[in-house]
User: Which sequence fits this backbone?
């Protein structure tokens, strides 16, 4: 079988290590299922991104929805990153993690009054608006608060990002953004919004995109709009490209950040403003693994099942997107035989699986497996379904490690419930 390794997560003497710490040691110390992240992977990804775009005026706003553990957010904040926050809950976390509100962008297709107020109270860098009604409401709230709201319109460029339909966002049939024509009309009628200053234009065409072309197509479409707006006398400060850069989970031929920069920088150079990026997955996906223990193995007819102690409530991606995550033993055995098996969890749903008909090395009850590339959209999408407690999270930094979120207790499961 194939083993998935990165600069910071690899085998040494047949044992899987995250940086300088053996995964088995952590699994034994903290139990499973267990999320483990490599701090230096987060840092490396951020620095590579920064370096690739150093020739242009740009800024990274980490999309914290991909992994919102306070330590993870704080790692990026310390590197100078801004934050893309999608709800008041994320905003609250970002502040707790040390983010400067003037470096926060408030996103979401349906912001509540409270969220808009919160953004204005804290003078966020900008609020992204996704409908005309929302713009009207932002104007009213800003007027009541005696403030000027800085707003960017999220434009739906009607571009096919060629990714999973659930994570494609840039087609006119998707719920996101405002179409170009309406956006232009709104920018042109800006004088009617006395308490709004339009400072940006924004796009986000989807996630896990493995080709640069859709990005270029969308940037070109939005640039035309940017120039029209400029002609109308409005000088925008920011052009926000969103996130969406794909990573390798299996054998996808994704592009490198250098390729991405090389192809897009000439487009950005035509614009005379700061370029904003909102990467999530690129910074976090391959920094993390989910470690699970094999509970049982069995054969039903011709089919082999490996039943593990992690489940869809811990990592939902395979169940809802049929997403591929590499699975490998944390102890490599040279002479183990390979089998074709499904790796499944204990939840009462057939959709509770991590791999189907996958070639894996034969494993036995009590052995640990690593589900790879689990640093993005893993823990953040977890739930308590089937009364399961969410896993603990560990951050490894060279030879140091610490719990950055403890495993939930049974008390967490009952938090503030009562019997009437
Ligand atoms: N900006 C906006 C406005 C977004 O909606 C997103 C992700 C990002 C940035 C970051 O995108 P990234 O660089 O991570 O692709 N749960 C799905 C992914 C949903 C992405 C939602 N929006 C998954 O597990 O694949």
Assistant:
């Amino acid at each position: 079988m194939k083993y998935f390794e990165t600069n910071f997560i690899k085998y040494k003497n047949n044992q899987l290590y995250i940086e300088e710490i053996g995964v088995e040691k952590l699994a034994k110390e903290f139990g499973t299922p267990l999320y483990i992240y490599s701090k230096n992977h987060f840092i490396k990804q951020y620095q590579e991104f920064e370096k690739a775009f150093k020739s242009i005026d740009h800024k990274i706003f980490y999309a914290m929805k991909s992994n919102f553990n306070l330590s993870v957010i704080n790692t990026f904040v310390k590197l100078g990153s801004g934050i893309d926050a999608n709800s008041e809950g994320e905003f609250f976390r970002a502040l707790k993690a040390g983010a400067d509100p003037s470096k926060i962008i408030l996103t979401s297709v349906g912001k509540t009054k409270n969220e808009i107020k919160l953004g204005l109270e804290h003078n966020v860098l900008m609020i992204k608006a996704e409908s005309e009604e929302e713009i009207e409401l932002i104007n009213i709230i800003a007027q009541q608060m005696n403030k000027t709201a800085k707003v960017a319109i999220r434009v739906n460029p009607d571009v096919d990002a060629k990714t999973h339909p659930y994570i494609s966002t840039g087609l006119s049939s998707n719920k996101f953004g405002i179409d170009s024509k309406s956006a232009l009309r709104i920018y042109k009628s800006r004088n009617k919004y006395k308490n709004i200053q339009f400072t940006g234009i924004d796009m986000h065409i989807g996630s896990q995109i493995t080709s640069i072309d859709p990005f270029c197509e969308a940037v070109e479409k939005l640039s035309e709009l940017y120039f029209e707006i400029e002609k109308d006398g409005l000088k925008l400060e920011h052009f926000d490209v969103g996130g969406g850069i794909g990573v390798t989970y299996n054998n996808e031929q994704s592009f490198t950040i250098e390729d991405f920069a090389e192809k897009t920088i000439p487009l950005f150079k035509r614009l005379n403003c700061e370029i904003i990026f909102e990467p999530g997955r690129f910074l976090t996906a391959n920094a993390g693994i989910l470690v699970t223990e094999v509970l049982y193995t069995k054969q039903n007819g011709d089919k082999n099942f490996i039943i593990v102690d992690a489940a869809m409530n811990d990592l939902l991606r395979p169940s809802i997107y049929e997403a591929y995550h590499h699975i490998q033993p944390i102890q490599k055995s040279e002479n183990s035989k390979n089998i074709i098996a499904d790796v499944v969890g204990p939840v009462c749903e057939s959709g509770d699986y991590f791999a189907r008909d996958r070639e894996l090395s034969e494993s036995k009850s009590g052995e640990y497996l690593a589900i790879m590339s689990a640093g993005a959209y893993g823990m953040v999408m977890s739930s308590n379904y089937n009364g399961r407690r969410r896993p603990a999270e560990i951050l490894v930094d060279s030879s140091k490690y610490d719990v950055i979120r403890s495993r939930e207790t049974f008390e967490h499961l009952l938090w503030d419930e009562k019997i009437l």
